[in-house]
């Protein structure tokens, strides 16, 4: 599995009263990592919205909180396609993981969809599909 890597740090504002990362912040970490993955693919999401009138949205998400992250931890978020048929029509399945060193702290399997600004699902643009297809040859790490 070829994975894009995004590094971030846990700040005080990310933690709860117990001093561990508040659960919703893991979703922020993986969202930022997905945005950087798309950017690394060479896709400009703003241009897609303004030019083609399409955006990406999370359709489904399954998350597992395995271990707590704490203040000042350096985290690595990996993003990878989830299976050989990860891209189909208007749907893209991804697997994301949050790591602290060799410890996996959080995993998420999610489905992204491509949709119009009115909320109608449409196929991912050809350019995006081509970038995904060539990712195995030139991974954006």
From TrEMBL:
Family annotation (Pfam families): 4HBT_2
InterPro entries xref list: 4-hydroxybenzoyl-CoA_TE, HB-CoA_thioesterase_AS, HotDog_dom_sf, Tol-Pal_acyl-CoA_thioesterase, YbgC/YbaW
UniProt keyword tRNA processing present: no
Signal peptide interval: none
One of the record's GO molecular function terms: fatty acyl-CoA hydrolase activity
Lineage: superkingdom: Bacteria
SUPFAM superfamilies: Thioesterase/thiol ester dehydrase-isomerase
Sorted UniProt keywords: Hydrolase
PANTHER family: 4-HYDROXYBENZOYL-COA THIOESTERASE FAMILY MEMBER, ACYL-COA THIOESTER HYDROLASE YBGC
Family: Belongs to the 4-hydroxybenzoyl-CoA thioesterase family.
Name this protein carries in UniProt: Acyl-CoA thioester hydrolase
Species for this entry: Roseicitreum antarcticum
Highest classification ranks of the organism: Bacteria, Pseudomonadati, Pseudomonadota, Alphaproteobacteria, Rhodobacterales
């Amino acid at each position: 599995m070829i994975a894009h890597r995004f590094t971030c740090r846990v700040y005080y504002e990310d933690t709860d009263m117990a001093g561990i990362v508040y659960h919703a912040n893991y979703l922020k970490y993986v969202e930022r990592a997905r945005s950087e993955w798309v950017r690394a693919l060479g896709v400009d999401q703003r241009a897609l919205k303004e030019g083609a009138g399409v955006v990406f949205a999370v359709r489904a998400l399954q998350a597992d909180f395995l271990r707590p992250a704490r203040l000042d931890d350096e985290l690595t978020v990996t993003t990878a396609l989830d299976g050989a048929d990860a891209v189909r029509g208007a749907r893209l399945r991804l697997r994301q993981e949050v790591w602290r060193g060799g410890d996996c702290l959080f995993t998420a399997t999610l489905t992204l969809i491509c949709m119009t600004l009115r909320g109608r699902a449409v196929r991912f643009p050809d350019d995006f599909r081509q970038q995904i297809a060539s990712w195995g040859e030139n991974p954006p790490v």
